[in-house]
Amino acid sequence: MKQPEIDYLAQIEQLKREKNAILLAHYYQQDEIQDAADFIGDSLELSRKAMSTKARVIVFAGVYFMAETAKILNPERVVVIPDHEAGCSLVEQSPVEAFRRFRETHPDHFIITYINSSAAVKALSDVTCTSSNALQIVAKAPKNRPLMFAPDRNLGRYIRQESGRLDMELWDGSCVVHEVFSVRRIMELQDLHPGAELIAHPECEKPLLEMADFVGSTSALLRYVAGSNKQSFIVATESGILHQMRKRAPGKELIPAPPEGDCSCNLCPHMRLHTIEKVYRALKDERPAVEIEESLRAAALRPIERMLDWSSV
Ligand code: 13P
Ligand code: SF4
């Protein structure tokens, strides 16, 4: 017998009320998850929201390091993630053993670690940052110590150039989504849309960032499009952001930057593991829950708190 269809949106609303739960979503989530969310933001805003919420349960529709950060900030709350497998290529490219080796062999280095990293790697770092506050954090880093920026080399290179801290070493990691955009195809689009501005996330590669009219975090890109008097934009980040851009800037032309091949590789394979059904089940069953051992949590909390202290955005 055919099962009656579940109205996931209505069920999620009801469960949120019954359980005193909040649904946080990153901009790279599917449209319907964004529409069900209580708050949508970039990784820094989501951390701040996770810290200030009074909800008993946080359902985190983002990748694992984001939910883990929410748990580090909120050990007493239940934090669940719709699909436990939602990782991040930057986390994979900064294994804790290699990171520890660097720490041990470079005790003089001040390590600035992008929030796209595991709790164990954060615990070995001096301060964390996100794409929206990385410049502020580097500006506050000690001037008399060499710097290491990990794990995203593209963001690190961009910040090194913008901050003038040319002594900053870079970990060799990158994002599988932001490195696939095709400069050749973007130039073709620019010929077709001569008035369009190119806007890009700083995880993109150097040649693309050098061509861009504006570089910023997901929230900064959104604010830029909404506030600009231009009508047309080529958007070089995960195309989930276009959903909120269409809402905040109705009528503007938004063109997702294309990858080189004929693939959907400008969609984050990790973020896109979540579905509205998995959000509903995670909320209903309160699992999979994010758990973190207390001494690791305390060690990872220090560089996150320092970041929150050091950044006004
Ligand atoms: P934002 O901090 O800009 O949201 O970026 C997070 C991310 O994972 C980008 O790929
Ligand atoms: Fe990680 Fe890239 Fe996905 Fe962002 S888009 S979560 S950096 S893999």
How does this model look, in words?
Helix content is 43%, strand content 15%. The protein has 313 residues and is of the alpha/beta class. Helix 12 (218-227) packs parallel to helix 13. The longest helix has 17 residues, at 294-310. The N and C termini lie far apart (54 Å). The mean pLDDT is 96. The structure holds 1,3-dihydroxyacetonephosphate and iron/sulfur cluster (SF4).
Feature tags:
single chain, 313 residues, alpha/beta, Rossmann fold, four-stranded parallel beta sheet, 43% helix, 15% strand, binds 1,3-dihydroxyacetonephosphate, binds iron/sulfur cluster
| Helical proportion, percent range | 40-55%
CA-atom Rg in angstroms = 20 Å
The main sheet comes to: 4 strands, parallel
The CATH architecture of the largest domain can be given as 3-Layer(aba) Sandwich
**What is the element string, with H for helices and E for strands?**
HEHEHEHEHHEHEHEHEHEHEHEHEHH
Q: How big a fraction of the residues is strand?
A: 5-15%
Q: Mind telling me the CATH superfamily name of the largest domain?
A: NadA-like
Explain the layout of strands and helices.
Layout: H1 8-19, E1 21-26, H2 31-36, E2 39-41, H3 43-52, E3 57-61, H4 64-73, E4 78-80, H5 89-92, H6 96-105, E5 110-114, H7 119-123, E6 127-129, H8 134-140, E7 147-150, H9 153-163, E8 169-170, H10 183-192, E9 197-200, H11 206-211, E10 214-215, H12 218-227, E11 232-236, H13 241-248, E12 253-256, H14 276-285, H15 294-310
Parallel strand pairs: 1-2, 1-3, 3-4, 5-6, 5-7, 7-8, 9-10, 9-11, 11-12
Helix pairs in contact: 1-14, 3-4, 4-15, 12-13
